[in-house]
């Protein structure tokens, strides 16, 4: 094998192998080479790694999904950015979180796991700009990472199906981020953020009502909870791709015609009204059922 063949081999393997499997594939190839070629091979591999790390335009786009899902929409985002060489899309995940676990106050395991993934991505590509697209419970994870881990810096954030509280202190936890670097895509038919708000503790209805503050750009769409990922809507390419690439916030056509939020939805999302009313109703129903059962059995 000639030196030129080694160069071609490393380059073709690097370009035609899935990013997460590149190094393993190159190591497997290295084991088959004669000793006289190893120095050149190692130098070429180091050069490829250095080129990635030193790319001033490099973007690491982190995707964080919600509960009871494996984040199948991650593949749609990867496909949308496949033609952009300097964007590396990394779909992050955690063990399945059930609705019951969502309601419990013990949520540190998925938060810590995703935080460690962010740190690992920074180690692999130190100069890359970190950006995030998060859905549903993934938005809550990002909000806790920003509040808890000051060593993790994120340049741009896209939220959809958000269950972050409306009074979240963006001015404190995202003070390192430039104006316009947080976008919240709202589904005007999304009931899950409302349900999370009044039935559990620690969440908000911002995926339905928006944040309505100076730090976050709310965009409204005639969507349900996961309609952002429907192929026929082309939301990823039309709205998210321009924002990730150069910060362009494409306005929603629905913003100007969206209906008023129903008073019942606003009350359900109110921290002093929705949750107390829900638990009072549950308590009354439980007491009524228990009373009926006692009456029937005596």
Helices, strands, pairings?
Blueprint: H1 3-16, H2 22-30, H3 35-53, E1 59-64, H4 73-80, E2 87-92, H5 99-103, H6 108-124, E3 129-135, H7 137-148, E4 156-160, H8 170-173, E5 182-187, H9 192-199, H10 206-209, E6 217-221, H11 235-246, H12 263-269, H13 274-297
Parallel strand pairs: 1-2, 1-3, 3-4, 4-5, 5-6
Helix pairs in contact: 1-3, 6-7
Domain AB hydrolase-1: 60-178
Protein name: AB hydrolase-1 domain-containing protein
Transmembrane segments: 277-297
What is the number of strand segments? 6
Protein structure class: alpha/beta
Q: Main sheet, how many strands, which sense, barrel?
A: 6 strands, parallel
Helix-residue proportion? 40-55%
First-residue to last-residue Cα separation: 92 Å
pLDDT < 50 runs, ≥5 residues: none
Write down the CATH class of the largest domain: Alpha Beta
Which value, in Å, is the CA radius of gyration?
24 Å
Order of helices and strands: HHHEHEHHEHEHEHHEHHH
Strand content: 5-15%
User: Count of DSSP helices?
Assistant: 13
CATH superfamily of the largest domain: Alpha/Beta hydrolase fold, catalytic domain
